[in-house]
Design a protein that fits this description.
Length: 124
């Protein structure tokens, strides 16, 4: 028995007018374009499994974005803040690029001198 989603997507004319150009935009980030395409296919009545096959993703990912759009509409497609520590530490601005190359961050996030870069920064 095929699975059907309880979140039936029906787009208003203003939502369709915003989503259709987004899906065709080459400058849009890939993940954002994928989300929009998921919603447009869901609005055409496609199942989550068929959308997942068409867009080469997993069914539970399609289900998540369908639910978010169903409850939050266009705002649900936007990126949310993620919990936890940021992936990359914000590097402090330290003078010139050659000076900043002499500093590294250890695994605890503390700044320490990188002596191997000082040799290269000093030149021959």
């Amino acid at each position: 028995m095929p699975r059907t989603s309880p979140s039936i997507i029906r787009l208003s004319s203003s939502e369709a007018a915003e989503l259709i150009p987004r899906a065709a935009k080459y400058t849009l980030a890939y993940f954002q374009a994928q989300r929009v395409k998921m919603i447009l296919l869901a609005a055409k009545g496609w199942s989550n499994g068929d959308i997942a096959k068409r867009l080469a993703t997993r069914r539970h990912v399609v289900s998540m974005w369908r639910k978010r759009f169903f409850t939050e509409r266009l705002a649900g497609l936007e990126e949310r803040d993620r919990p936890g520590r940021p992936r990359h530490p914000q590097l402090p601005a330290i003078g010139t690029p050659s000076e900043s190359a002499c500093w590294i961050f250890n695994t605890t996030g503390n700044r320490q001198r990188n002596l191997s870069n000082e040799v290269h920064a000093a030149g021959p």
